[in-house]
Amino acid sequence: MTRSVLLGSASPRRRSLLEQAGWDVEQVSPAIDDGRIHLETDSPRQFVEALAWFKAAQIGPPRYPHVACIAADTVCLVDGEILGKPENRGHAAEMIASMIGRGHQTITGMCVLDQAGRRLLLSDIATVELGSLSGEALDQYLDSGEWMGKAGGYNLIDRIEDGWPLACLDDPTTVMGLPIRRLLPILERIDRRDRLKGRS
């Protein structure tokens, strides 16, 4: 039997991660601009979990055949400062420059809603190290516009494939926007429980 989830995100990377794990995905974009939301909290975990909940609440709870509704939000953390999506080219340049030659953290928060409306909030942190990057390489990247819509101004896999000296010390899917190692057991548990009860 096909297993399906409702994904509250337009991200092709998040969709691909779920599909690679064997799930069918229906995507719905929440009507929320997370770049315009400012929460009064000193906790990056609370920040991304709250944004994930706002997104999930707009599109869930899911209905059969979807096992669950999933929403997520990702930020980078440098010297305690939360870095979301860059506002423009200059902003992206500042973000990436602040990461060169050192490590930073990427935090993804998730909200999972089941068909009964039960909510699970969680977050995962991954440390990423960015080595030396030439000014020419950075300018070329900024000119491409690929930084748009990406937390911290970059996508891990794309930049590694392009030769950037990036190393992820934890779960790379957390940096990619959906901590699959933590998410899959949750989906399996919900799916198993629903099957035992008999889906309506």
CATH class category name: Alpha Beta
- Whole-number count of domains: 1
State the low-pLDDT regions, or none: none
**What percent strand?**
25-35%
CATH fold-level name: Maf protein
Q: Which key features would you list for this structure?
A:
Maf protein, 200 residues, alpha/beta, 7 strands, 36% helix, seven-stranded mixed beta sheet
Brief write-up:
The chain is α/β, with parallel strands linked by helices and 200 residues long. Helix content is 36%, strand content 26%. A hairpin with a 4-residue loop joins strand 5 (102-114) and strand 6 (119-130).
Give the helix/strand layout:
Elements: E1 4-7, H1 12-20, E2 24-27, H2 44-59, E3 66-78, E4 81-83, H3 89-97, E5 102-114, E6 119-130, H4 135-144, H5 156-161, E7 166-168, H6 172-175, H7 180-197
Parallel strand pairs: 1-2, 1-3
Antiparallel strand pairs: 3-4, 3-5, 5-6, 6-7
Helix pairs in contact: 3-4
Structural commentary:
α3 (89-97) runs antiparallel to α4. It is built from seven helices and seven strands; from the N terminus they run βαβαββαββααβαα. It has one domain (4-197): Maf protein, CATH 3.90.950.10. The chain has 200 residues and is an alpha/beta fold. The chain has helices spanning 12-20, 44-59, 89-97, 135-144, 156-161, 172-175, 180-197; strands spanning 4-7, 24-27, 66-78, 81-83, 102-114, 119-130, 166-168. Strands 1, 2, 3, 4, 5, 6 and 7 form a seven-stranded mixed sheet that branches. Helix content is 36%, strand content 26%.
